[in-house]
Amino acid sequence: MRRFTPTAIGAPGSFLPLFLVAALLPLDAPAQDADAREAYGDAQLAIERIDFESAIEHFDRAVRLDPEFVEAYIDRGLVYRRIRDYGRAMQDFDRAWEIDPGNLRVILNRGAVYAAIGMLNQAIEAYSEVIRRDSSYAEAYSMRADALWVAGDVDRARQDYSRAIRLEPDEPKFHFNRAEMRYGIGDRAGALEDLTEVIRLDPGNADAYNNRGSVYWAEGQLDLAMRDYTSAIRARPDFPGALYNRANGFRRAGNLQAALADYDESLRLLPSFSEALVSRALLHRTLFHFGEARDDYEEAARISPSMAAAFNGLAWIAASCPDREFRDGDKAVEYAVQACELSGWQEPAFVLTLASAYAEAGDFEQAIQTQTRYLDFALSEARRVTGEERLALYESRRAYHAPGPTLTAN
Q: Are 146 and 115 in contact (CB under 8 A)?
């Protein structure tokens, strides 16, 4: 499944994918060596801990002890797929097929690899082959629906999700996956319906609470979104995505210290979470913590060199920071141009920052040209008024600096 990413800083986080973990050994599977079965069980426990390196080591031991252990090959292939080592994943699926020709899990997971590397037609054909061999295989319908949706065939995807649910109405992940599609095509009511059903079937499902919170956010129902984000965190305290989403909600509500605490915890759990770094930087700017903001933007740009918002944040600090210690016009222009190029010059806020950067660097002709380009975008009336005021500032050969903290007398 794909992951939805935030489209703007302050937007809720993503829908989070379910990972197809190793299946329990079927009751009718051939008897395995006892030590091999123990190693297989240890591998499954490692998967639950998201310790994929250890899982692979345990699967290695299982197949050394029993070279005909089909399920160990399949499930090691699943782990390789999860860590994007698709070549080794296919090798394991091929070995399982040699031992057990016709094994439907092999065909299914070959399809999943094809989908992961963008070979959607091959993926759809693999899932269709499973369905031809067993028309009651609900997982195959659900996975084919995923591929059809990515391929843009929404009608067939909708049909396949519905078939999977009819076959196994109490399987939460089928409702979860259909909710993702429904959200993606703008059917928020349908997404809410499916996610509510997931929660009914699996009350501890943190992903479902988090995703339903994102739907409520999109619907403008902040209170319900925050309730669901909190439920997700209660179900899984080490959930960076839900913490990030709740932090955005606290920031929207003006509870800045609570927002900062959630951003901090999200980043403690996942230091490479670049969206959280940029959002925390924006919060630091609001709190006039410009050094911390710059540090977060720099780290986000290092982790995600194609993240335009990180470079725009660095440009804003270098161009418009109230504290002159942080201003540097030449660096501001460099950062702002990079942000605009990364966004294809289609993000008005980044063009606005570039105009400020040129003004800070003393190039007012370029500042005027760029500010005029900003005003050519379709803007709200309030933004247009602010933009025209900024243009007049540059025409008078003055740079724009954001207001600093207001001092109050005792």
A: yes
Hey, which bits of 321-375 come out as E strands?
Answer: none
Q: List the one residue out of 336, 334, 374, 377 whose CA is nearest residue 354.
A: 336
Buried residues in 329-347 as b, exposed as e (16+ CB within 10 A)? bebbbbbbbbbbebbeeeb
Q: What's the pLDDT at 33?
A: 80
* Cβ atoms of 36 and 20 closer than 8 Å: no
Structure tokens at 196: 């509510």
- What's the one-letter identity of residue 246? R
The encoded tokens of residue 47 equal: 């998967």
Q: What is the pLDDT of residues 28-37, one digit of tens each?
A: 444 458 899 9
Could you please report the per-residue DSSP string of 105-145?
HHHHHHHHHHHHTT-HHHHHHHHHHHHHH-TT-HHHHHHHH
Ranges of residues in the chain with a pLDDT under 50 are 1-31, 408-410
Q: What is the pTM of this model?
A: 0.83
Query: Which helix (H) or strand (E) segment is 263 a member of?
Result: helix 256-269
